[in-house]
Amino acid sequence: MLLLGLGLVLFPVFVAFVASSLPLQDILDAPMTLVPGPDLLANYRDALAFGTALTNGQPVAAMMLNSLVMALAIAIGKIAISLPSTYAVVFFRFPLRRLCFWAIFVTLCCRSRCGSSRPTRSPPISA
After folding, report:
1. 68: Cβ–Cβ under 8 A, 6 or more apart, which residues?
2. What pLDDT shows up at residue 127?
3. How far apart are CA 67 and CA 44, in angstroms?
4. Could you tell me if 114 and 70 are in contact, meaning their C-beta atoms sit under 8 angstroms apart?
5. Which of 25, 30, 72, 112 has the smallest number of Cβ neighbours within 10 A?
6. What percent of the chain has pLDDT over 70?
7. Where are the domains of the chain?
8. Cα(36)–Cα(21) distance, rounded to whole angstroms?
9. Looking at residue 117, what is its pLDDT?
10. CA–CA separation, 115 and 117 (whole Å)
């Protein structure tokens, strides 16, 4: 039963991997093969270096670098703010100390949101 569940979870990942190794026409053919194709390295090189139509030609490698920089900046920023405040909450006795602890804790549990405050929506599909 466990192997069946594992197969159900991993099969879509395997299909996506196989599709990434095939030329576009082979993916669009009705019964797509489940054997990896010959274009794996070329497809990944093109996506990383030159981007795709979905990324408006922006290289995926640049977007991954941007994500890494943002994630590191947010993590380092949260740690830099957390350490002094944690030190104060643990070692100093002051009124509302417990409330400050929970305020800091809940704030750190919330995810950071960078960019626009509006949700991103897809354009409507015209008939």
Report:
1. none
2. 47
3. 18
4. yes
5. 30
6. 87
7. 12-50, 62-109
8. 6
9. 54
10. 7
Instruction: Tell me what pLDDT residue 78 has.
Output: 83
Per-residue pLDDT at 3:
93
d(CA 91, CA 9): 47
Burial class (CB in 10 A: 0-12, 13-18, 19+), 22: buried
Measured distance CA(98)–CA(85) in Å, rounded: 12
Token couple for 50: 């030159």
Q: Report the C-alpha gap between 58 and 39 in whole angstroms.
A: 21
Tokens of 108: 């750190």
- Burial class of residue 106 in the structure, from the number of CB atoms within 10 Å of its CB (0-12 exposed, 13-18 middle, 19+ buried): exposed
The two tokens of residue 110 are: 């919330």
Q: How many helices (H) and strands (E) does the chain have?
A: 5, 0
- Residues of the chain falling short of pLDDT 50: 127
Residue 55 near residue 63, CB atoms below 8 Å:
yes
| 57 contacts: CB under 8 Å, gap ≥ 6 | 50, 51
